[in-house]
Amino acid sequence: MKKEIRTKDAPMPAGPYSQGIIVGNRIYVAGQGPSNPATGKAPEGIEEQTRQVLKNIQAILEAGGAKLDDVVKVTAHLADLKYFTAFNEVYKTFFKEPFPVRTTVGSQLKDILVEIDVIAELA
Questions:
Q1: Domains of the chain: which residue ranges?
Q2: Residue range 93-104: mean pLDDT, rounded
Q3: Does domain 2-121 bear CATH number 3.30.1330.40?
Q4: pTM of the entire structure?
Q5: I need a surface site. Which of 51, 64, 79, 123 has the fewest CB within 10 A?
Q6: Which residues contact 48 (CB under 8 A, 6 or more apart)?
């Protein structure tokens, strides 16, 4: 059975999808962009956008009873792979060892530099 996660501390979905879903002991968080839920605006630059995306993910996880330490899989989309090093520097401040498995790809993103989705395992 699926249970929706919804929090005002992360951007509301822009389409027919949920912020997150709990199925059994697993949380699936939809791809999050860098929109600040309070202002509706995205910050400038890859570092600040990455930081905001991860804060959005953290808020959804917390609303579902999890934390970033529970994340086991990350998929990251960068508008340009030239941002990889700067993205990685911010990313590693949010996660600790053992790091989640991760796939990072270059993608065509609309008006943003980064989008990330995660899967977390509840204890």
A1: 2-121
A2: 97
A3: yes
A4: 0.97
A5: 123
A6: 34
pLDDT 10s digits, 37-69:
999 999 999 999 999 999 999 999 999 999 999
Q: How far is CA 111 from each of CA 40, 47, 58, 79, 89, rounded to the nearest angstrom?
A: 13, 15, 22, 9, 22
Q: Strand 114-121's sheet: what is its strand order?
A: 2-5, 20-23, 26-32, 114-121, 71-78, 101-106
Rounded Cα–Cα distance for residues 99 and 9 (Å): 25
